[in-house]
TrEMBL record:
Belongs to the bacterial solute-binding protein SsuA/TauA family. Gene3D superfamilies: Periplasmic binding protein-like II. Its main location: periplasm. It comes from Albimonas donghaensis. It holds the Pfam family NMT1. This is NitT/TauT family transport system substrate-binding protein. The keyword Signal applies. The lineage of its organism: Bacteria, Pseudomonadati, Pseudomonadota, Alphaproteobacteria, Rhodobacterales.
Amino acid sequence: MTVRLTRRHALGALGASAALAGTGLYAPARAASKVTVGALRFTSHAASFVAYERGYFKEAGLDVDFRFFQAAQPMAVAIASRDADFGVTAISGGLISLAEKGAAKVIGGALQEEQGVDGQMILASVAAYDQGVTTPARLGGRNFGITTAGSSFHYMGSKIAAAEGIDDLKFKPLQKVGAVIGALKSSQIDAWSIVPHIGKALVGGGAVKHIGMVADYIPDYQVTTVFTSAQNAANEKAKTEAFLAAFARGAADFNAALVDRTEGDDGAEAMTRLIHKYVYADQPYEKASRSIVNGAMRINAGAALNMDSIGDQLSWFKSEGLVKDEVSMEMLVDDSYVDTL
């Protein structure tokens, strides 16, 4: 893919901020600025956890608290209402509608599907598998679990169905990820797609069956994005750049330790223990560590944003009547902060 530099030396500023922060010479954009970060308790949100635990947010002059959510839509609402300052999650219909109203902006990329790195899995219930749903091509007439209409799960299921020529896949909204997991394990739904740290644990425990990979249907899918309120994007440039710089440092550490494995076994162990404070924290480390390591998908360097993928997602939401036709990429994305792919 081709990388272009966005306006006003944006990524250069981020890189310089990160480098200076590492030497202790970085002058924070705003000393002790209180920031609330929305997150899910997923390995895919690890960049924020690393930036917090390793002091990168603090070095950037940000006093961070986390607010945890069960799905993407409520997080988007919290960002728009300024109950949270920054969020990291998938594009949703709610986020796009809030952007259309001038309340939210996507400002960077996070998790992305990449060939050669285990990504999101397509799962089937044991009952559906035993009935012949052994590949995504056999999903016709079946129930596919989603959190809400217009969620990333809805998008993935629709793209899979379209690629397989299936026009009767049924979507069952269950509001929370935990509820979808329960429904799949009890065969109340037939299929679902989810990040590997959850998918591999379910398959390994025999609760569900693995029938495909999302990357085979949506190559280079920008799974999650970094977003903020439109007010922050437009009027709090220093704070927003500081957040992205610290986030990018956290992502770089995560990728090195668990994706590229350049930090050795000790580095991987340290990273896994750090993430365990937030992901599967209710489980013993010995049990949780395998799932955390299994969820290590790449987080985009420098919070770079795949605009082609965002454009495809926006087009799908429009085609489904989930957002207004007049919503433009300019309404949804502020591309002044990071490189775009």
